[in-house]
Design goal:
- The complex is a heterodimer of chains A (269) and B (326).
- In chain A, 32% of the residues lie in helices and 20% in strands.
- By secondary structure, chain A is α+β, with helices and mostly antiparallel strands.
- Chain A has a single domain, classed as 3-Layer(aba) Sandwich (Beta-lactamase), CATH 3.40.710.
- In chain A, a hairpin with a 2-residue loop joins strand 8 and strand 9.
- The longest helix of chain A is centred in the C-terminal third of the chain and has 17 residues.
- The two termini of chain A are 28 Å apart.
- The N terminus of chain A is likely disordered.
- Chain B has 3 domains: 131 residues, Porin, CATH 2.40.160; 111 residues, no CATH class; 68 residues, no CATH class.
- Chain B is built from 10 helices and 7 strands.
- The termini of chain B are far apart.
- Classes of the chains: A alpha+beta (269), B alpha+beta (326).
- Chains A and B meet through helix 8 of A and helix 7, helix 8, helix 9 and helix 10 of B.
């Protein structure tokens, strides 16, 4: 009984035809809220419009706002004391240390480093609240009705929220940007400070290098949000995006849903 | 009604002059009307033009087409009158006799015929229009037209045959067993070529072919049909291929078509393992994709179980945790 119905991959294996609206909750065990999209078409979802804490998936918006502003990757950014004290994932930056904005963006997206993220937000807008205002304005402009930010990097906060559907939209926009796409696919990179210190930046996305066709994008975890991920993959010109919010085992879920989505796409579902 | 072909044949026989030897001819307008005893109504007369060799009637009317099965015999001419006999063999078998009387610009005639459908009489009258014409042109045009139509028909048949061959070749590649089987209405199967049918069966005996066939739909009835077509036991073939798929391990095939082997592999390579290796006991790289697909299937199964057991939302969670160590 435990291992019943083990076959997979065939057109009839799932038994259900995909639905566009409303999407079918075919994998309710995947996450509290999830969404699977192939080529922009939502195949399966659970609570896709429910606003939930997005944790560091927030940084997808952070990157979008940075890159569509007055972005200069070579610009020197001085790390503030507040940024250096950021909690959670971090590079270990020191107050007063200077790095190129491009390196800090890589650390923000690849390693989800909160100190790098906050340093960039302060550099771009003068303060984190000013930067967050830009993020919220962008969310409104994009019509992301379930999205709101209280901070720039994804810490739990009463007003920090996004839905799986909004995050899918953000992910597709972000992956259309060449620099985000490049950084999202890096398993490892390095950041260099003005003092000559080289910092290894290792990807938090466990799918990179493990899941065939994985291209990104972002992971997140906070006690309030649980384990989150936006996983993107491309095979044969077909792009799959999986958004997971509060997944018990996000890597098995993400990898499984990506495989299921490609199977569905291959069999003409 | 079988008389129409005979009427056409007779009309051609009576109206057409003998094979022309003259280079030029003259146009005649001929009106003919068929009478058949017992017919409740009179058949309407028909009028047509034809090109007759210029000059006097030196020969009796004869068949236009060399391929005709009709022969004119016993031709007798007396002044401006000509009599003859005609006999046709083949499908349009008949015998008869004809007579015609002419002047320089007109003629009248009749022909009595005895056919399997009864006796008939065709009366004709003709008048010379005089317009110059080529008496051989009509036949040449007819021959050319017939040749063209026959050529087109041959090409159409060849094209249809090529198209069918292509469709059946693709059906073999796509493992579409339905194309090789007679449909329910007892009409013949679309693809009857033994070579292609054999190709389908040969391919079914391979893992790629079996996988294609199996992946397109796993209905037992369809499998039984394929077994019947190829004279094999489908479950036995599946068992053989699944056994072969273990050495070396063809994980895609096993995952698709081999439940027992999948169960054993999941237990050995997936259960209780982590995706990344954090916390130890990582899934090996070789089985990561296999186990990912299994994870998706388990997540789907969990949904089905949740539906079946309303209010027992955590049941599937516990099951999944037990298998993959979530």
């Amino acid at each position: 009984m435990l291992l019943a119905a083990l076959a997979w991959g065939g057109a009839t294996a799932g038994g259900e035809a995909p639905s566009v609206s409303p999407p079918v909750d075919r994998f309710p065990g995947a996450a509290a809220s999830y969404l699977v999209s192939v080529g922009g078409r939502v195949l399966w979802a659970r609570a896709p419009d429910t606003a939930r804490p997005p944790a560091s998936l927030t940084k997808v918006m952070t990157a979008l706002v940075l890159l569509t502003g007055d972005w200069d990757p070579a610009a020197p950014v001085t790390v503030s004391l507040r940024a250096a004290r950021a909690t959670g994932s971090r590079l270990g930056l020191v107050a007063g240390e200077r790095l190129h904005a491009g390196d800090l963006l890589a650390a923000t997206l690849v390693a989800s480093a909160n100190d790098a993220c906050l340093a960039l937000a302060e550099h771009a807008a003068g303060s984190e609240p000013a930067f967050v205002a830009r993020m919220n304005a962008r969310a409104v402009a994009l019509g992301l009705a379930a999205t709101h930010f209280d901070n720039a990097c994804g810490h739990d906060a009463p007003g920090q929220r996004a839905s799986a559907r909004d995050l899918l939209r953000l992910a597709r926009l972000a992956m259309a940007h060449p620099e985000v796409r490049r950084l999202a696919g890096l398993e490892e990179t390095f950041a260099t400070s003005s003092s000559g210190r080289t910092i290894r930046v290792k990807a938090t996305n466990a799918l990179l290098g493990r899941l065939p066709g994985a291209t990104g994008l972002k992971t997140g975890y906070t006690p309030g949000a649980g384990r989150c991920a936006v996983a993107t993959a491309e095979r044969g010109g077909v792009e799959v995006v999986v958004v997971l919010l509060d997944a018990r085992e996000r890597w098995w879920s993400a990898a499984g849903l990506v495989e299921a989505a490609f199977d569905e796409a291959r069999t003409g579902g | 009604m079988t008389r129409r072909p005979i009427l056409s044949l007779l009309a051609a026989t009576l109206l057409a002059p003998a094979a022309a030897t003259a280079a030029s001819g003259e146009t005649w307008e001929i009106t003919s009307q068929m009478e058949m005893p017992g017919m409740p109504f009179a058949m309407p007369p028909t009028t047509q033009r034809f090109c007759k060799p210029a000059g006097d009637w030196t020969n009796p009317p004869a068949q236009q087409e060399k391929s005709s099965d009709c022969k004119v015999t016993d031709v007798k001419r007396s002044g401006n009158t000509m009599r003859w006999k005609v006999a046709c063999t083949g499908k349009q078998k008949m015998s008869g006799d004809g007579e015609m009387t002419w002047t320089a610009s007109a003629y009248t005639g009749a022909m009595n015929m005895h056919t399997g459908d009864g006796d008939m009489k065709m009366k004709t009258r003709g008048r010379k229009l005089g317009t110059p014409c080529d008496p051989g042109a009509q036949k040449r045009e007819l021959d050319a037209r017939v040749a063209q139509i026959q050529g087109q028909a041959r090409e159409q048949q060849a094209q249809a045959a090529r198209q069918q061959a292509e469709i059946c070749e693709k059906a073999g590649q796509d493992m579409s067993v339905e194309m090789f089987l007679p449909p329910a209405d007892r009409t013949p199967a679309y693809c009857t070529d033994a070579t292609r049918k054999g190709g389908f069966c040969d391919r079914l005996r391979t893992r790629p072919g079996f996988r294609k066939f199996y992946g397109d739909g796993q209905g037992k009835e369809r499998q039984a049909k394929a077994g019947t077509l190829c004279h094999l036991g489908f479950p036995a073939l599946q068992a053989t291929l699944c056994k072969e798929a273990l050495q070396p391990e063809d994980l895609d095939f096993i995952g698709l078509a081999c439940p027992a082997q999948t169960k054993a592999l999941v237990k050995r390579e997936c259960a209780g393992r982590t995706y990344t290796g954090e916390g130890g006991n990582a899934v090996s790289e070789k089985y990561r994709g296999f186990c990912s697909r299994y994870a998706a299937e388990e997540l789907r199964q969990e949904g089905a179980k949740r539906k079946a057991v309303d209010g027992a939302a955590d049941q599937g969670k516990q099951l999944l945790k037990g298998v993959l160590g979530f």
